[in-house]
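Fold it.
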Amino acid sequence: MERHLTAPGVRIRGLTVVYNTPSGELPAVSGVDLTLAPGTITGVVGESGSGKSTLALSMLNAVQPPGRISAGSVEIDGLGDVVRLRGEELRRTRGRKVGYVFQAAQNSLNPLKTIGAQLLDLGRSHDVGDLRALVRDARELLGRMGMDGARVLDSRQHELSGGMRQRVGIMFALVLDARVVVLDEPTTALDMITQATILRIIREVHDERALTTLVITHDVGAVAEVADDLAVMYGGRVVEHGPVAEVLGAPEHPYTRGLIRAIPRLSGDLGLARALPGRPPTLGTLPAAGCVFRERCESSLDLCRTAEPVPAARAGRTVACHLPGPHAVPVKRKEYA
């Protein structure tokens, strides 16, 4: 099967996704700007309801009613703006050019068909000429993830454990040689050893196939293990973005610091871990003005109640916060042609 030698860049600009509610249309993602550099793995972390999965679905133009993409673009090298794709062109993009692993992998499997039959259906729907090669590639991917590929392809979903179904979902996202891969909680329902195996496979296949990868996760440890860059989301906004080691090693945004402080340690003083105060906002409780994090922030200013912070470059990363930080300068986006 053909391998792409050049990874694509992805540029998300001004992305806003709204959901129709009894109170009107409310934003789940609001004005997000995010660049995925070619050949990198970008992790996205944040609490439930922060907009991570909605952002990921937008990369396939797959937001379903009552939601819709109301503004912005998702430009992928070689594809153009995915938000503008429609009909057959959009269908062929999903899976073949942009692979996706859903958070609940079992929901994307047909319980009446074997995994192998679903693989062949996938190949035929995307006009794969050599179905035998497709099956060989699937067996190899499953084998590298610690499973008997032939046995799995002959199985139905109820014959597989939750962890095995999750790995089957990863195989489906990779087997058509997609250029961009989005993984929504790829290590959910897996034990620690299997998690480590999956993260290693994601990294290896990412490098071998020249992918650009987005990993959605609650697990900051998983991000530290596999990602190059890290985006932190809260209330539908990206509040901090930069190289993963720098963001985790010296977080600039109060929310990022709170997330890291809440991680329990395996050694040392367990009392050092502190949960974030309060609860994350819902669509109905997002403030109409000001900083979305202000009610839970220990360092909020009067300005935070009236003005939404504009993302600025600070020490090699982008931070959206009114608090002064080192070397704060206006953002200069790096574009990828």
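The CA atoms of residues 277 and 296 lie 6 Å apart.
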